Amino acid sequence: MDTKMITLDRAHLQDSDFTEAAALLQAGELVAFPTETVYGLGGDALDPSASAKIYAAKGRPSDNPLIVHICDVKALEKLASTVPEEAYLLAEKFWPGPLTMVLPKSDLVPKETTGGLSTVAIRMPSDEIARELIRISNTYIAAPSANASGRPSTTRAEHVMEDLEGRIPLILDGGPVQIGLESTIVDLTGEVPMILRPGYITLEMLSEVIPNVTYDPAVLKHEKQDNIVAKAPGMKYRHYAPKGELTIFEGDLDRVVGKVATEAYHAALEGHVVAVLCSEETRERYARGNLYLVTVGARESEESIAANLFHALRECDHLGADRIFGESFPEHGVGQAIMNRLMKAAGYRIEEA
Ligand code: TXA
Ligand code: MG
To answer: Is the CB of 328 within 6 Å of ligand 1?
Structure first.
């Protein structure tokens, strides 16, 4: 199958820009599209065969449920069998935006879309292209991140082409995404609301609306913990991984830089192709040795790190790096989500400097 790319002009969006994409979705086919978090690989959420195509295109295990994207709060009552008061409060405060809520599913939602679960994850994206696509196609769009399973999520249309060319008919190119990390997932089906995946909307922000919200224990662990069952099935898989072996160093920044520089230098001497994941502030301190320097972002702006992280991991692949050494970042605010993704990308290979 040929994969077509349509580049959209965000300043002048027209309904006709979506004609082809909407027709594909209505025919049960797949369309990749931008959201404010990452690119999504969309299919009609109520069509079990579309969900099957999503799993096949990504090479994703079919027990890993999909997020259903909506453009109108009223859809909550159609897709969920019960909608607790908290869901409306959160929707009012954070939708449209990078927050996904897990609720008990209604009969309308096929089990193929929810990976066999009796709950459904729902999100209203703020990206205008995403919302127009949902509105004009008149569907609910099931969409995981538009990467091949296990690879870093896609934050540019080129990343989607790299992973899914020949596997899907259409990519809508809306340029680089705004946030760069997937949505925060909060599970509202238990006694206490729980964050299953940290994201741009932090625990602190959520607790202003639902004060008793906590992290699912699996989120906070820095090692793989086989005895803690990840409630978001997707969080248990090796994920976000570049092809090279990535090791992250944590601790005092000066020591981290020293340790990364030494390890990278030695690996290069041994003949490895080595990339260093650094920050703008530390880049010039890796002058020694034959190293590729990949800047993730500026420490003074965690938003810049979030926006660039997945691109930087893919950049390491383009450089052919088989060893990658990276700095860690402070875990407050969005830093929690940044470190969550980085840790998974490293397969939890994290060392104290
Ligand atoms: O920002 C995002 O959320 C992006 C964009 C495209 O919206 N989507 C995304 O989808 O990241 P995906 O499939 O890559 O990640 C969805 C995560 C997985 O970890 C999955 O296990 C979890 O959400 N999930 C989905 N439905 C769930 C449910 N019913 N209960 C618990 N976890 C669920
Ligand atoms: Mg994903």
So the answer is: no
Domain ranges of the chain: 4-220, 245-352
Q: Which atom of ligand 1 is nearest to the CA of 64?
A: 21
Q: Which CATH number fits domain 245-352: 3.30.465.10, 3.40.50.11030, 3.40.50.1220, 3.30.70.120?
A: 3.40.50.11030
Mutating to test ligand 1, I would choose from 185, 239, 341 the residue with most ligand atoms within 8 A of its C-beta, which is 185
Distance (angstroms) between ligand 2 centre and the Cα of 234 equals 7
Neighbour-count burial for 140-151, b at 16+ CB within 10 Å, e otherwise: bbbbbbbbbbeb
Tell me how far CA of residue 45 lies from CA of 29, 48, 55, 117, 207, in angstroms. Answer: 11, 7, 13, 14, 30
Is any ligand 1 atom within 6 A of the Cβ of residue 239? no
Each residue of 25-69: pLDDT tens digit?
999 999 999 999 999 999 999 999 999 999 999 998 888 899 999
Question: For 181-208, how does the pLDDT look when each residue is reduced to its tens digit (9 = 90+)?
Answer: 999 999 999 999 999 999 999 999 999 9
0.85 exceeded by pTM: yes
Please state which CATH class domain 4-220 belongs to.
alpha beta
- Ligand 1 centroid – CA 238 distance (Å): 15
Burial of 223 (0-12, 13-18, 19+ CB in 10 A): exposed
CB atoms within 10 A of CB 40: 31
